[in-house]
Each structure stands twice: as structure tokens, then as C-alpha cells.
Design brief:
By secondary structure, the protein is of the alpha+beta class. The protein contains five helices and six strands, in the order αβββαβαββαα. α2 packs parallel to α4.
Length: 104
Amino acid sequence: MSTDVQKRIQEQVATHPVVLYMKGNPQMPQCGFSANAVRILNALGVKQFFSVDVLQDPEIRQGIKDYANWPTIPQLYIKGEFVGGSDIMTEMYQSGELKQLLQG
């Protein structure tokens, strides 16, 4: 991964409290997993979050996988920390853990 892409990703996750790397955008997700991630954030009352459409930037699409050492998209970051993808978000939402993480 190029250092420029790594720096861009680091800046994005460091400067926004909630960042979702996804396919499409929150208004029009381009895959079911990204749509699920947006639904969960909306259900938790997260009105504003920074989203990055990986379909618009091939370097970010691969770079975010390398950055987190996580092979799939979407990827959620809260307060600079990698949380997980759609399945982990679903589990954490159902257990109440994601709500606590967002409030903490």
C-alpha cells in the first residue's frame, strides 16, 4: 500500500468520530452489507458519519483492506479504532455493545 493512501486513511479515521468505508454512499449503498451497516448506524441514531465510497477510489478500496488487515468492505471505525465489518456490526448492535461504544 502506498504511503499516500495510508496517510489519507489515517487522516480520515483520526479526524472523524465515525467513519464507514463502504460500497456506494449512505443514501444509495451498492451492496447489501453496506446497506446493513448504514441501517445499523441509523438505528443507533448516528445522524452524521463520514463515509468513503471505495468504488470511487481503487487505491482506497485496496488500501483500507491492507490498513485494517481485514479482507472485506464495509469497515467501521469509531474514534480512530477499527470495529469490524457488517457481521461484527450486527452482532455488536444486537448485544448493545455498539451503542455503548458510540456513546463512550
